[in-house]
Every structure is written in structure tokens, then in C-alpha cells.
Amino acid sequence: xxxxxxxxxxxxxxxxxxxxxxxxxxxxxxxxxxxxxxxxxxxxxxxxxxxxxxxxxxxxxxxxxxxxxxxxxxxxxxxxxxxxxxxxxxxxxxxxxxxxxxxxxxxxxxxxxxxxxxxxxxxxxxxxxxxxxxxxxxxxxxxxxxxxxxxxxxxxxxxxxxxxxxxxxxxxxxxxxxxxxxxxxxxxxxxxxxxxxxxxxxxxxxxxxxxxxxxxxxxxxxxxxxxxxxxxxxxxxxxxxxxxxxxxxxxxxxxxxxxxxxxxxxxxxxxxxxxxxxxxxxxxxxxxxxxxxxxxxxxxxxxxxxxxxxxxxxxxxxxxxxxxxxxxxxxxxxxxxxxxxxxxxxxxxxxxxxxxxxxxxxxxxxxxxxxxxxxxxxxxxxxxxxxxxxxxxxxxxxxxxxxxxxxxxxxxxxxxxxxx
Length: 420
Hints:
FAD/NAD(P)-binding domain; 5-stranded parallel beta sheet; about 425 residues; alpha/beta; Enolase-like, domain 1; 3 domains
């Protein structure tokens, strides 16, 4: 049996190792498109702030780790997938047959159509090659403009601030992290960043990046200002790498559509990680949730099903916990609520605390939190477990800070019922 894996990120590596553990005699091939050892993109900010060297970004260590696992690592970029011939063609013309195929090609930066964005001095923070250029340009005192203040953008922001640059962040939404935080929470994060010396413009777009004979960039904003910059970082979101699947017969919506086994509409072909679209039991729809814990879980489930070991994906985790210059925030599930649902929130700006809870019936389906680190476990348990709160819902509506008490009471009640 030949298992072919497209993508050498965390999902690809974990899937390959899972296959090897349970199928010692099978052939396993992993195709990556970068001239690096497999690494984690989420480690790049730690490379930028000096916490790790490049080796610290590698998913596995040891010169011959993959050889010892008898996992063949190839470099190439996929051009097409032929589902009838059960083969993949690379851009250099190489054809590779497969018995089982796993698509975990990840995602790429979604570069906005801004004049000048593709010239020198502008970089996403996505690859090790990007990181090397950012390290070279983001010296202490350098003027850096970052486009985007989403989840990934805020992680990059912190790494840049640690390098002692003069940082300006430009976000087109009306608040920071608009896809995971409501208006109050997103505004509190902005105010916190500003108190730490970062200039933040929200509801503002970069309209053009201008160049003259020098290396200094002119970043023209929609508010009429033009900022001088030595480096521009583009952190305006990502999109799944699925273009090569066009006309393949493999069904794609936002990502590669999968069932509860991570199998696509084509038997024997699976998908996992940032390019996969899987069912989210909280929202009741399929979503692409591009976070590494999801990639890891999906990779293991897909690999087991590739081997005929029927395994269901428990669900897609919608969890984001963010440390922004020391301010801890969290977003779980449907943080923006559902039509007809009830909600409650409490805010103490002086203490840097905010808590917003969203309900659907007597279930907690989502929440935002700033500064409530002791409640993170309870939030996750109640949201992911879809725990029925009963009378505790009304108690939380009166005092949302009783999350831990509600979690303990309701989960103990459920446990007692299951043992009856």
C-alpha cells in the first residue's frame, strides 16, 4: 500500500508518523514545496523574538529522523491530481501513483491587491525565508508598518515589538482581531497595544505602497496619512492551497470538503489541516479552522481511516487563546452568538477584564474573555462539551463570572447520570 501525502507541515508529518506506527510495511511518501526541513509556521514568531533558532522551528529533530521512520521526503509542487488514474503530477512533470492520498497542503497568505505590495521591503510572515528577511530589516529603531491585526497578525505584532522596532499596525476592521473578538474586547486589545507604544489604526486601509530612489517606503493610508517605513509586513489573512484541485473531481468549497472520517467525496482521498473543511458541531456547518491543534487531530484521524481503522473526527475546535504584549484574551465557539440567542457581558476596563457569554437555549455556545485566565478551561469544557446548563444558565446571566462553578456543577451532574 502506497500512502502519498501532499504537504510537509505538521499535519503531513503527524499523518506520516501515524501511518508508520500502524502500518510498518506500507510505503509512505511526503511531498513538500519548500527547501527546508519540515517546520511549524507557528514557531516563526518565536524565531523572530529570539526564543528559538531556526532548528527550534523544525517539527522533528535529528538528521535522519524521517529516514529512520522510512518516510520518503520529496520536494516539489503539485500541479494536478488524477482521481481515475490514482496519480499526482508535479509541476516538473513527475508522476506519482498512490493507493491512498492525503491532501494537507495548508494555506498561503491572502495578498490584497494594493499597488506596490509585491515590491522589495514588503513581506508576509509565513515562511522561514520571510523570517530571514524580516530579521534583517526589523532592527531596533526600524520603522515597521504591519497590515492586519487578526489572530496571526497579533502574534506577529508581539514578535516585532520585542525587536525594538517602531511599530504601526493598520487594520481595516473597526477593531483588532475582528474575527474572534467583539467590539468591546477588540477595542480593549487596541488600547492595551497603544499603552505599550504600538500605534494602531483601525477602520483604515493601506491604499498604496510607494517607493523612491531610497529604500524607504511610503505607506499611503485611507485616512489621508502617508507613513514612512523601512519594512511592511502583510498579515491580512490566509486562504487554503487548493487551486491545483480545480477540475479534479474532488469537491471543494472554502477548503477540501471532508466527512467525519476526513475522507473527501472521492473514496481513498482524504484531507487534513488548514486546507480541509470539516464539520463543526457547535455552529452546525462545515468550516476551515486553520489552527495547529485542529491540523494535528485531523491528521491522526485521516491516517487511521486511510488504514481502514474507522475513526470519527470528534469535531472542529474553534479556540483561540492570544497573548498580546502580556494581555491574555480568548475566543471560543460562536463568540458572536446566534439569532434569538441570549447573551451577557461584564467589563472592568480599569482591571483589564471583559467577559462575554453567548447562549443557545441552555447551552453556552461561545464566549470572549480578556483577563479571565482562570476560566479558560471551564469555557472550553462548556462550549465544546455542549453541556446543558439548566438552572445554571440563569445564574450565569446574573453573574457570568460563575463559569467555574457552573462547569463543575453541570459536568458532575452529567457524570452522575451516566453512571445511573
